[in-house]
């Protein structure tokens, strides 16, 4: 089931607009460990392949938003094989480091989480303010943060089945495809290219990624892209990619750890796993064990898939292919949420397109997630 889960996760990660959480909700439960292993391995695998989708299709999901520029440079230099190796190295090292940290902090999770739960919105607000004021054109950045936040608030309060699909795919996906259709196409990718960073670079990044994910675990309102903003200060694009890969993989493991210790899920797929199986210490260790080998298998498949994508870069660059992706996302949105979903998709696309035209950092559109969360906690106080 681990191998099958890895293969399904690869497909989910590569297809724009799909997410493992959406797939998990379609799975029938039978209180079986094999279902839990299948979903956990699919979640890990999808996290690996979402990076390939973000790079080649220019449609990042929430965890890859900050890497648009870095991936563009690797693509234009024909070095995507290096980028994939960086993702693989970081993911495997991070998985190993995260396991050790979960053994150490497990018994403290419940106490710290209960203490911070009432203050998480303050921390989220502080991080959002820091992100905005660190930019030169902070007023424009604030405008996009508030505009996306308003759109996010509407999306999460009109009973959409899949609010993240039109909201995030429009702002970070379709807008980039439309704008990028007139830009230079990526060249053929080199079969082999060098990774300049060494093991110790990745090890340090992995430790930081695990600590970042621990912070997200204790403050559920924080997203990978928001905590990863501080990693975007790396001048080295290799380290930027390594950092986000590390945060994403650590987030999966620590989400499972959080659910095991305090029965709280940061992730929809982890929540589904908890419904499929009562997770005791034995089940927790088995999931971690199978997950590690599924991660290795997914990384090996990613190398093969990246080679095929690099060989077919002309097809990916074609306007017809990009147009097909846009149509697919529109149909998928209408399938889940009809005309209302299409309206949100249109509005988010226009907002994302305007952001690109104004040359503003994509992180400012994460107000779509941050502001609704902050408002939820504020309204709860009154």
Task: Please give a structural write-up.
By secondary structure, this protein is mainly alpha-helical. The chain has one domain. It has 17 helices and no strands. Helix 3 packs antiparallel against helix 12. The longest helix is centred in the last third of the chain and has 39 residues. The radius of gyration is 20 Å and the shape is globular. The model has no long low-confidence stretch (mean pLDDT 81).
Secondary structure topology:
Layout (H helix, E strand, L loop, with lengths): L1 H13 L5 H5 L8 H24 L11 H9 L3 H26 L3 H8 L3 H14 L4 H18 L8 H17 L18 H20 L5 H5 L8 H26 L5 H9 L4 H31 L1 H5 L1 H39 L9 H15 L1
Helix pairs in contact: 1-3, 1-14, 3-5, 3-12, 3-13, 3-14, 5-10, 5-12, 5-14, 7-17, 8-16, 8-17, 9-16, 10-12
Short description:
By secondary structure, the protein is mostly helical. The chain has 17 helices and no strands.
> Approximately how much beta-strand content do the residues carry?
under 5%
| Structural class assignment | mainly alpha
Q: Report the C-alpha radius of gyration, rounded.
A: 20 Å
Q: So how many helices?
A: 17
Total strands: 0
Helicity range? over 70%
* 3D shape: globular
Written as H for each helix and E for each strand, in order along the chain, the element string is HHHHHHHHHHHHHHHHH
Provide the domain count.
Answer: 1
Stretches with pLDDT under 50, minimum 5 residues? none
Report how far apart the termini are. 48 Å
Major beta-sheet overview: none
- The overall pLDDT, averaged over residues, is 81
